[in-house]
Predict the structure of ABC transporter ATP-binding protein.
Amino acid sequence: MRAMLELKNVSHVYVSAQEASLAVEGLDLQVTPGEFVSLVGPSGCGKTTILSLLAGLLVPSRGQVLIGGEPVHGPSPRVGYMLQQDYLLPWRTIRGNVLLGPELAGRQSRETEEAVERLLHEMGLSGSAARYPHELSGGMRQRAALVRTLITDPEVLLLDEPFSALDMHIKLQLEDLVHHTLRRMRKTALLVTHDLAEAAAMSDRVVLLGSRPGRIRHIFDIPAELRALPPMQARREPGFQDIFEAIWAELEEGEEGGDA
Ligand SMILES: Nc1ncnc2c1ncn2[C@@H]1O[C@H](COP(=O)(O)OP(=O)(O)OP(=O)(O)O)[C@@H](O)[C@H]1O
């Protein structure tokens, strides 16, 4: 099967007037259509750099970055981004925020409006569509941000710590909702997170990176019986602790080896 996301021997150097620093080196990764993959690793190992390369916000210093088999030449509507901060426009209602993407793309239609209402309903936001962002809780705002990302129908979602600013119980609920929605829509997703349990509960595979420079240390396949479950349920399975501890042990080994 052709990869939806592909990094081929990718390295990236940040260059400033004072110095050049090698952020990631020799990355090879393929993510198949509909797969959910997480990137974990110590601070500074290049997780955000990888998302920026895939989003077309950075050009790799070496190697190739491909989406759907095509080289990335800049931001593309095939790719949606969800971040820790929701970046909802405070002067627009939730519905107005969600409709911004289609408006800018000149794709306003009855179908789009119906799709917005459907997604708002699925995210439990129908009753809040006419409210402004400051009137909503953090979890509701992130659900609105997810609707805004999904309404442009990207094939790929890049998720940069989208749950990290939320209270634990809201975070667990949102993990389930995002997992369910992306699976149902058969989206390909790459999640950056510092939370190893979140990565293990939500993903098909977990990519562990080492740092200085960022390199792939190990790729963990999540057992099929866990993958079939919603994240909250997967966390309660006996096999969950084993995979969590395997990732943790590998992360610690890297740090002891001066990798962090
Ligand atoms: N704009 C930049 N200019 C110079 N160096 C940068 C820049 N952005 C990132 N770096 C460096 O590149 C490396 C990778 O950074 P990146 O932000 O991708 O890591 P990360 O794994 O996302 O970190 P964190 O987990 O702390 O968010 C780090 O050493 C960082 O200092």
